[in-house]
Design goal:
Largest sheet: 5 strands, mixed
Radius of gyration: 19 Å
Number of domains: 1
Number of strands: 9
Number of helices: 1
CATH architecture: Sandwich
Shape: elongated
Helix content: under 10%
Order of helices and strands: EHEEEEEEEE
Strand content: 35-45%
Structural class: mainly beta
CATH class: Mainly Beta
CATH topology: Immunoglobulin-like
Length: about 130
């Protein structure tokens, strides 16, 4: 498999034009992608995002991850300065036809999202037993 299995679209492309306008900043979470003979593992850093505010979806041949960081400030307190504020993470990737998007698994632990995307079964290596005789 080549390095084109999961790719990021160019900034400002058609996907960027389709996104709704948001008041809070949109951040691209840093991502590491690893390939094995079984498939792809994608690890995204999304600190502050809870499972309830995380969305992982496949739209045609694109994988989209989104998450919101919500900072709850009590009504009686008015912040003078805030380094941490509400943030929206979003990143999308083009999926290769070699990958089985119907079998993606996702786990979120300590702000790190791990996605496992297997290769289609017919593309995975298999051992063929040789018969004697």
């Amino acid at each position: 498999m080549n390095k084109q299995n999961v790719t990021s679209p160019e900034p400002g492309g058609t996907q960027a034009a389709q996104r709704p306008v948001r008041e809070q900043p949109v951040l691209r979470p840093p991502v590491d992608i690893f390939e094995t003979t079984e498939g792809i593992t994608l690890v995204a850093d999304m600190p502050g995002v809870s499972k309830e505010r995380l969305s992982v979806s496949v739209e045609r041949d694109s994988l989209v991850i989104e998450g919101d960081v919500q900072v709850d400030i009590p009504q009686q307190i008015e912040p003078v300065h805030a380094d941490v504020r509400a943030t929206h993470y979003r990143r999308s990737f083009a999926l290769s036809s070699e990958l089985d998007s119907g079998k993606i698994s996702a786990a979120l632990k300590d702000g790190v999202l791990t996605l496992r995307i297997p290769k289609r079964a017919e593309l995975q290596p298999r051992r063929i037993q040789v018969q004697a005789g």
